[in-house]
Specification:
alpha/beta, Amidase signature (AS) enzymes, globular, eleven-stranded mixed β-sheet, 18 helices, 468 residues
């Protein structure tokens, strides 16, 4: 598929249409949509940016590749002077005082944000139903969920309302909705992209990443937003992924591939997804790709470890939201009651569930038995990943255990919602680069490499497009 970014760039340069007309058309499509993907449409802001691009073109000035390209951002990102609600009542009236680093890099490149996108409140969910703006609907079938927590972002890309979107991934929140809506979604290596200006869920696994309909667009956006940021001490200098590396099909065929037997043998795995995954493995082998079966942790261990740590971190991160410094403050008889009522009324049930769970595992008498043990298991998981990538270059896995659920199917079943992340959370705990590609199974295929292996991940996805 031809890069949409390149197509828009060429059309703007040749004056096939104006940037203003492009932005207006995308905004009108979002307004008319029944998918419920937009928390806030940035119409005035976006049209002002578009007019500036049109002026440059009219004056004969060159524009950059991303200049004038409309994009969306999950409503957990800060964009100075614009709303940032995290899909919650708590921050529904909150206005960003500064701009997130990743967003600023895109603004510097001339890209135009047009919409703050619907998501699960504070990233707490796997369907974009846990939102005060109402559930987002799947791009392919509106009776199905959008996935989460970056559901609005994935749907907007799939419906072509945005050229690309920035999601946030803590335990699968880019990869799973990308699979549900048949687009690409990349969770980069932890630290490759600054988290400054994104509302924290679990700081040790939160990452910023792109969602797009083509691999080339993923590559372009990834290169733009990567790199060291003094605001975020976990970031590191990164090497760009070159366009030539993407097209080296012969070199990619030499990569050794692995898959986890425990994932495929799970009784919870849908039979159709399992059959499609095995068929993909057979196709790779038939085309000369070496594929090895690997042993790994059971999915229940990965899920319980992830949620123990994620809930603990979100309880800590959201302690700042008490109505005093941020958000919608409620009235009560004294300060203690104000805190209690404010948090009780403004947080969704799922967010409260995760805060209570996090406080429990951090509490005296439980932290050593639960939280510290989970940290120890995480270290073992990371060690095992390092060992696995000594023998293989790529790990393939399904994105989800089951096909896309219907709207309302998992909202009242938290355990089912948590287990829907069974195949994504392990790679988050390892901080590894993982891409969902919309091939292979109904909800796509995850392609994972060792840390800083984004080039291999994108290369292999390109190979899958050739073979599947």
């Amino acid at each position: 598929m031809v890069s949409e970014i390149h197509q828009i760039h060429n059309a703007l340069v040749s004056q096939k249409y104006s940037c203003t007309d492009l932005v207006k058309s995308k905004i009108e499509e979002i307004k008319k949509s029944t998918n419920n993907t937009a928390n806030f449409i940035l119409e005035e802001y976006a049209l002002e940016k578009a007019a500036a691009v049109d002026a440059k073109i009219k004056n004969g000035e060159e524009i950059g590749l991303l200049e004038g390209v409309p994009f969306g951002l999950k409503d957990v990102y800060l964009l100075q002077g614009q709303p940032a609600s995290a899909s919650s009542d708590f921050l529904k009236e909150y206005v960003s005082p500064y701009t997130a680093t990743a967003i600023q890099k895109l603004l510097n490149a001339g890209a135009i944000p047009i919409v703050k996108e619907n998501c699960d409140a504070f990233g707490h969910g796997s369907s974009t139903e846990n939102t005060v703006f109402g559930a987002a609907k799947n791009a392919i079938d509106e009776t199905k969920v959008a996935g989460g927590s970056s559901g609005g972002s994935a749907v907007n890309v799939a419906k072509k309302y945005t050229t690309f979107s920035l999601g946030g991934d803590t335990g699968g929140s880019i990869r799973q909705p990308a699979g549900y809506n048949k687009v690409y979604g990349l969770k980069p290596t932890y630290g490759r992209i600054s988290r400054y200006g994104i509302m924290a869920y679990a700081s040790s696994t939160d990452v910023v990443g792109p969602i797009a309909s083509t691999l080339e667009d993923i590559r372009i956006v990834l290169n733009c937003i990567s790199g060291k940021d003094y605001h975020d001490q976990t970031t590191y200098p990164s090497t760009e992924v070159s366009e030539n590396a993407m097209s080296d099909i012969d070199g990619v065929r030499k990569l050794k591939v692995g898959y986890y037997k425990s994932f495929i043998d799970s009784e919870a795995l849908d039979k159709g997804i399992k059959a499609d995954f095995i068929k993909l493995i057979d196709t790779l082998r038939a085309n000369g790709v070496e594929v090895n079966e690997l042993d790994f942790f059971e999915t229940n261990t990965l899920v319980s470890t992830y949620y123990t740590l994620a809930m603990a971190e979100t309880a800590s991160n959201l302690a700042r939201l008490d109505g005093t410094n941020y958000g919608n403050r409620k009235s009560a008889g004294n300060l203690k009651e104000i805190y209690a009522v404010t948090r009780s009324d403004n947080f969704t049930e799922e967010t409260k569930r995760r805060i209570v769970g996090g406080n429990q595992v951090l509490s005296q008498g439980h932290s050593e038995e639960i939280y510290l043990k989970a940290r120890g298991v995480r270290n073992e998981i990371s060690k095992r990943f390092s060992e696995e990538f000594e023998s293989v270059d790529i790990v393939l896995s399904p994105v989800s255990l089951t096909p896309v659920p219907s709207v309302g199917e998992t909202m009242n079943d938290p355990l089912a919602m948590y287990l829907s992340d069974a195949y994504t959370v392990g790679f988050s705990l390892g901080g590894l680069p993982t891409l969902t590609a919309p091939v292979g199974t109904e909800t796509g295929i995850q392609i994972t490499a060792d840390k800083d292996g984004e080039a291999k991940v994108l290369q292999f996805a390109h190979l899958l497009n050739e073979l599947v």
